[in-house]
């Protein structure tokens, strides 16, 4: 598994409503698109498991078509991808197959015909958080993760081909991270997949295809190349005036890799100790780690703050739009709640103070944007994307924090999210809603404490308190949609974060420390029955009202 970076926790910036069902589905189609020699003219998507049941309500269908057209995950054209396909002359069809068993519940087969008449068949799995992998290519089991730049070579399985490919990679200065050969039988068609930390130059294709035993070669650049704000290369950073400064500036890749190993924090205790020994905030520690990580991969080491500035603007817009222009969601369950809350908060009857009232309104608003296929920043997932902007933007409005201070608070939140992801999970399908809303609430609580002048230990204590407050929260989306009870739970997560921060800032320590609390969360998630982990088969999703709305989802 690749080392997690800030963009993996705060992000992706994407079109909603679901990290796995929308962004992940799009990535499968986009990786497929990169393997085509020419433009696609016909595509059939066969959907299995959860995809088969909820592909319309989650916009999975629009995302898949958008991916085949080459749209990135945050492209505004995704909701209108059917019209774009018609204009591009792309015929598409969806075949839901809920009964066939697959290894992963979010699985799709993609059959594409390109303008040359060539056919490619791909099986992809959306594995959570917007990540995806290709597990079958033209009938042969493979593994393409999208985590690295990948070279995919179709060949005859004969001696010397693998060494030829490796020699070409070396000639072009590309370092091989992994190399795998996939085949059905000896001497028949096979695929070599080589992954690299480096960007693979297009010119390498001609050199590889010069071998008569090679049928064709394709390059699939890594997921980061599809982000709206990918990390910058040193050359691009210099051109745009983002010169490396401070810790980690001008490190060579090998130096950065060695330094990264020393500050690749494996626990909250390690991070707290590092911060206390060096007089740093959690945000400083995670940004030092990020600089080393990016430098070790050949990227500029100083652009994280620019990415987080972009995320803040996305968050701000995802709050504003539903308040000013309410829309119904894709599944029809929500829409208009944020405008009502905003009006109530500004009335004489409002029940709570302005910070909590705004946090409630803002978090609700982001989920409306998400459910209507608007642009949001997953933090750490699309289903929990309202908690952090709800808390941070409310604190900014009511306490006057600057965008620079919010930028650092987002980095702080990423530090907590990274530790939870590393030692537990942030996926509802694995750990229940405690893994999504609970993690987001912990991230927001820690960020709030830093904004209010708390210490690194207090940040970790607040995160532990927030997790404990939502421990055992189940994931039971009605109809399998990221709408209800998800929207209101984002508001609950925001309120829980503020309460945890308030408790901690008053001088109350967490009885059980952060690391042990994360361990408890992981154990509870594993103990939850499958019906309470994003299957829409239990909890609120199994109530009579929910089953009346979505009888097929209830079986």
From TrEMBL:
The UniProt GO MF terms for this protein read:
4 iron, 4 sulfur cluster binding; L-serine ammonia-lyase activity; metal ion binding
Task: Say yes or no: keyword Metal-binding present.
Answer: yes
- What lineage, starting at the top, does this entry show? Bacteria, Bacillati, Actinomycetota, Coriobacteriia, Eggerthellales
Q: Which reaction does it catalyse?
A: L-serine = pyruvate + NH4(+)
Where is the ACT domain positioned along the sequence? 150-222
Record flagged with keyword Mitochondrion:
no
Q: Which Pfam families match?
A: SDH_alpha (PF03313), SDH_beta (PF03315)
- Which GO annotations describe the biological process of this protein? gluconeogenesis
**Record-stated family:** Belongs to the iron-sulfur dependent L-serine dehydratase family.
Q: Please report the organism this UniProt entry assigns to the protein.
A: Xiamenia xianingshaonis
Region annotation Disordered: residue ranges?
A: 224-246
CDD domains per UniProt: ACT_LSD (cd04903)
What's the name of its gene?
A: sdaAA
Instruction: Name the needed cofactors.
Output: [4Fe-4S] cluster
Q: In which pathway does it act?
A: Carbohydrate biosynthesis; gluconeogenesis
* Broad enzyme group: lyase
Which EC number(s) are documented for this chain? 4.3.1.17
Q: Which SUPFAM superfamilies would you find in this protein's record?
A: ACT-like, Serine metabolism enzymes domain
This protein's UniProt keywords = 4Fe-4S, Gluconeogenesis, Iron, Iron-sulfur, Lyase, Metal-binding
Protein name per UniProt: L-serine dehydratase
Stored NCBIfam families: sda_alpha (TIGR00718), sda_beta (TIGR00719)
């Amino acid at each position: 598994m690749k080392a997690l970076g800030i963009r993996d926790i705060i992000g992706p910036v994407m079109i909603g409503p679901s990290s796995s069902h929308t962004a992940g589905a799009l990535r499968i189609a986009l990786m497929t698109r990169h393997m085509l020699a020419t433009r696609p003219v016909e595509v059939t998507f066969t959907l299995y498991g959860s995809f088969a049941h909820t592909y319309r309500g989650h916009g999975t269908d629009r995302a898949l078509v958008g991916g085949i057209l080459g749209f990135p995950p945050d492209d505004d054209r995704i909701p209108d991808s059917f019209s774009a396909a018609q204009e591009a002359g792309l015929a598409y069809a969806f075949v839901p197959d809920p009964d066939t068993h697959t290894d992963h519940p979010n699985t799709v087969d993609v059959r594409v015909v390109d303008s040359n008449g060539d056919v490619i068949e791909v099986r992809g799995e959306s594995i959570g958080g917007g990540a995806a992998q290709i597990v079958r290519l033209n009938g042969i089991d493979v593994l393409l993760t999208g985590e690295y730049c990948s070279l995919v070579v179709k060949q005859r399985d004969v001696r010397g081909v693998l060494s030829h490919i490796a020699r070409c990679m070396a000639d072009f200065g590309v370092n091989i991270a992994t190399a795998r050969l996939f085949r059905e039988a000896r001497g028949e068609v096979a695929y070599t997949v080589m992954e690299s930390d480096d960007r693979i130059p297009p010119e390498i294709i001609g050199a590889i295809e010069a071998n008569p035993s090679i049928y064709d070669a394709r390059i699939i650049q890594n997921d980061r190349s599809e982000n709206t704000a990918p990390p910058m290369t040193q050359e691009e950073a210099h051109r745009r005036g983002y010169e490396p400064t401070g810790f980690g500036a001008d490190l060579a890749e090998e130096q950065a890799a060695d330094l990264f190993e020393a500050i690749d924090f494996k626990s909250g205790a390690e991070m707290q100790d590092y911060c206390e020994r060096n007089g740093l905030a959690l945000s400083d520690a995670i940004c030092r780690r990020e600089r080393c990580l990016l430098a070790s991969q050949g990227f500029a080491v100083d652009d994280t703050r620019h990415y987080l500035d972009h995320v803040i603007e996305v968050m701000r817009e995802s709050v504003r739009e539903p308040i000013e222009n309410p829309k119904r969601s894709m599944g029809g369950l929500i829409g208009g709640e944020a405008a009502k809350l905003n009006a109530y908060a500004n009335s004489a009857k409002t029940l709570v103070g302005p910070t909590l009232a705004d946090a409630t309104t803002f978090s609700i608003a982001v989920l409306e944007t998400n459910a209507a296929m608007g642009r949001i920043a997953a933090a750490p997932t699309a289903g929990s994307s309202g908690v952090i902007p709800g808390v941070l933007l409310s604190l900014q409005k009511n306490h006057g924090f600057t965008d620079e201070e919010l930028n650092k608070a987002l980095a702080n939140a990423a530090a907590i999210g990274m530790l939870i992801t590393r030692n537990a999970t942030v996926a509802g399908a694995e750990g229940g809603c405690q893994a999504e809303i609970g993690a987001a609430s912990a991230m927001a609580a820690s960020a709030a404490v830093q904004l209010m002048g708390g210490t690194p230990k207090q940040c970790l204590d607040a995160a532990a308190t927030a997790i404990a407050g939502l421990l055992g929260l189940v994931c039971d989306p009605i109809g399998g949609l990221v709408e209800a009870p998800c929207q209101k739970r984002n508001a609950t997560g925001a309120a829980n974060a503020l309460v945890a921060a308030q408790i901690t800032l008053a001088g109350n320590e967490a009885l059980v420390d952060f690391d042990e609390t994360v361990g408890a969360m992981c154990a509870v998630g594993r103990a939850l029955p499958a019906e309470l982990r994003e299957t829409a088969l239990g909890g609120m999703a199994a109530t009579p009202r929910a089953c009346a709305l979505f009888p097929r989802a209830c079986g």
